[in-house]
Design brief:
Blueprint lengths: L1 H7 L3 E6 L5 H13 L3 E6 L9 H8 L10 H6 L2 H7 L2 E7 L1 H9 L5 H8 L3 E6 L3 H5 L1 H12 L3 E2 L3 E4 L5 E5 L3 H11 L9 E6 L4 E2 L5 E2 L6 H12 L3 E6 L11 E4 L3 H11 L4 E4 L6 E3 L19 E3 L3 H6 L8 E8 L3 H12 L3 E6 L11 E2 L1 E5 L2 E4 L3 E2 H16 L1
Parallel strand pairs: 1-2, 1-3, 3-4, 4-5, 8-11, 8-13, 11-12, 13-16, 16-17
Antiparallel strand pairs: 6-7, 9-10, 14-15, 17-19, 18-21, 19-20
Helix pairs in contact: 1-10, 2-3, 2-10, 5-7, 6-9, 11-15
The structure holds cytidine-5'-monophosphate.
Amino acid sequence: MVVALAQLAGKHILLIIGGGIAAYKSLELIRRMQDAGAAVTPVLTKAGAQFVTPLSVSALAGTGVHQDLFDLTAEAEMGHIELSRAAELVVVAPATADLMAKMAHGHANDLASTLLMATDKQVLIAPAMNVRMWEHPATQRNLATLQEDGILVVGPEDGGMACGEFGAGRMSEVPQIIDAAAAAFGGCPLRGKHILVTSGPTHEPIDPVRYIANRSSGAQGLAIAQALLSLGASVTFVTGPTDKPAPKGAQVVHVQTARDMQDAVRAALPADAAVFAAAVADWRVVGESQSKIKKTKDGMPALEFAENPDILAEVSQLEKGRPNLVVGFAAETDDVIANATAKRKRKGCDWIVANDVSPATGIMGGAENDVTLIDQNGSEDWPRMSKDAVAAKLAKRIAEALL
Ligand code: C5P
């Protein structure tokens, strides 16, 4: 339990309480999760409310309990999509045969099933039902489907049940569910590792009021920093100007230009790994004007450009103090894989995360990404997923590579 306490500290868990007699254990579960330092947002299904009252759940959780998909007050405060993603882990306890069937078949006809469809986070279920229902081929098929989908399962245990029968179907006890939730966070494989992340655009000034920039929102870089932090890494986050919040717990360095970013990156080394997610301007304006350039009758000012330092290439090619893993990004609009593969070689980085940023994809500035990971062995297409999910997957890969 000492390990679980550390792993759940500061985590946010969405707890879905299904309708079964085992729901009484979920009250204890809320308490123990809180003891471990987690914040719990409870969701009570209609059937769940037959076994435990909304009042006892919300009193224990210290927050409101969410019950209805069409609860307008809740929607005004927090939509169901946001609710499904705000937490870092979704726990379903008890997971009834009906909830498992809904999950396996993609139903979304009440708040719990909609949240489970909408979430991009890891889901852990603690099944609880009568032994015949558990052993029924339909439940076993649904279980296999859910496991294939990556859903984690704790229990059920053998034992006497409220219905008087004996066998598998009893919901796991609270300490087992707590341990499974802690294991779902995967521990902290990056503890003790320093990782540098660059993010956002750069601004290259023309004069004191004008600059050249690009459409990078900084969303993917921020998500990567957060995912690395949640695996225990210490992160230096070098960011160009964005309206995104800083990742909590990172050492944050704000920069404007590519050359500022280069200085900040040099200062942040050494690092065990470096992820260059920033969209660095390739060129800067030569002879930045110290006063605002005026409109004149003589026509438009001619801007002369100089090439910016390639920070990724510089770090990738360091003879001394090169991070063990250097990851670049390639935002392309044509021949994505071919261009990104050539870029990996040219720059000398280990991996390239390539994506198509043609306007039609909605990726630049959007919430989702559709990436291909390129390494020395070839390319691996990842399905389109949220930027948070891309970040979690990349962070996990980085942890494996640094082992
Ligand atoms: O060459 P291109 O800009 O497409 O390469 C993209 C990758 O190189 C990204 O990882 C970006 O952060 C990095 N880069 C850099 N310095 C530059 C240009 C790009 O670090 N001047």
